[in-house]
Design goal:
Elements: E1 27-32, E2 38-42, E3 54-59, E4 61-63, E5 67-72, E6 77-85, E7 91-96, E8 106-109, E9 112-119, E10 125-131, H1 135-142, E11 168-171, H2 183-191, E12 195-201, E13 224-228, H3 230-237, E14 241-245, H4 247-260, E15 266-270, E16 285-289, H5 296-304, H6 307-319, E17 330-334
Parallel strand pairs: 1-17, 3-12, 3-14, 4-11, 14-16
Antiparallel strand pairs: 1-2, 5-6, 5-8, 6-7, 7-10, 8-9, 9-10, 12-13, 13-15, 16-17
Length: 337
């Protein structure tokens, strides 16, 4: 299967540059997983599709202020984008411009001191971070929430790029399907008898990494850390139907189900790549945003339904003025229509 098979036309005007005022008033395209039927709703209507016996699986990761502008001891300014903590306690980071960040160089941003330790594959840098206060506390003072490269307008409220249930810091990008939920809507979900189970997958830079190989089976995913608690695992195991909120929840559930034959409490890292032909073991319905052309996220959604159904839904969404990507509208892929 070719990467080009997952291309589609998207005008720049369809890419949402800012969130709408009320999270749950975004549009919702309900798509029949196997029928391909489509219904145009509002996200708040998702409650009509959730019932007793369902478990809604949310990713409670939190985006941390990973983008930092720092000054070199010589005076030069560079931008760091922290990616993940390494086993030795150092961090991997993107640095722009990279030519100004060589091993041994030191940079300062507020209470933070960054020392370049080594050049990593793909041009990333291994950096040693020193701070007079806890790292994430210092980052809150010195850093900014990173936004996807296709968002060109400033974000007035950084909390709009966090879900209302974000809890554990560690992501460089939000699990955007969860952005549509409000606390009031989540209460309606539980009032309807649908349980909520939180899992954690820290979203890494691979979510924006383009698929360069024309044969999709040759693409290598970036590994991301996940954790499922005992309480959440028990809820998911007794579910009549598992409704995953976003591709990160799907990747976590499918990783664990593939390794253990069922959902169990565990933690680890996953580089699972889901594309058409994959057999799902722990996802019955999917809430997701509209994804980039030729992306691994679009391939996952196509695997859950079919490439033809999903691309037809995307084409209809473009024609009907849906908003795409992180701050855009949502799809609900279900067998209920």
């Amino acid at each position: 299967m070719k990467t080009s098979d997952f291309d589609y036309f998207l005008p720049a005007s369809s890419i949402a540059q800012h969130p709408i005022q009320n999270r749950d008033e975004s549009r919702l395209l309900v798509v029949g997983r196997h029928s391909g039927k489509m219904l145009h709703r509002r996200f708040i209507d998702i409650i009509e599709y959730l019932t007793e016996g369902d478990v809604l699986v949310l990713n409670d990761t939190k985006v941390f202020p990973a983008r930092i502008h720092a000054k070199k001891t010589s005076g030069a300014m560079v931008e760091f984008l922290l990616l993940e903590e390494l086993p030795n306690g150092n961090w991997s980071s993107m640095v722009k411009p990279g030519r100004k960040a060589r091993p041994g160089d030191t940079f300062i941003a507020g209470d933070l001191v960054f020392e370049i330790v080594a050049v990593l594959p793909e041009g990333f840098r291994e950096i040693k971070i020193q701070s007079a206060r806890p790292l994430f506390e210092a980052l809150e003072m010195a850093g900014d929430i990173p936004l996807p490269p296709y968002i060109h307008e400033p974000l007035k409220e950084s909390q709009r790029y966090q879900t209302v249930f974000a809890k554990y810091s560690g992501s460089v990008a939000a699990p955007t399907a969860g952005l549509h939920f409000t606390e009031e809507l989540l209460k309606k979900v539980t009032d309807a008898g649908c349980e909520i189970a939180a899992i954690t997958l820290h979203v890494g830079p691979g979510t924006f990494r383009p698929v360069k190989a024309e044969n999709i089976s040759e693409h290598v995913m970036h590994a991301e850390r996940y954790e499922i608690s005992k309480e959440s695992a028990e809820k998911i195991r007794r579910a009549r139907r598992i409704v995953s909120v976003g591709t990160t929840a799907v990747r976590t559930l499918e990783t664990v189900a593939s390794a253990h034959g069922k959902i169990v409490a565990c933690s680890g890292s996953t580089d699972i790549f889901i594309y058409p032909g994959y057999h799902f073991q722990a996802t019955d319905a999917l809430i997701t945003n509209f994804h980039l052309p030729k992306s691994t996220l679009l391939m996952l959604v196509s695997a859950f339904s079919s490439k033809d159904i999903v691309l037809r839904a995307y084409d209809q969404a473009v024609k009907d003025g849906y908003r795409f990507f992180s701050f855009g509208d949502a799809m609900f892929v279900t067998d209920q229509i």
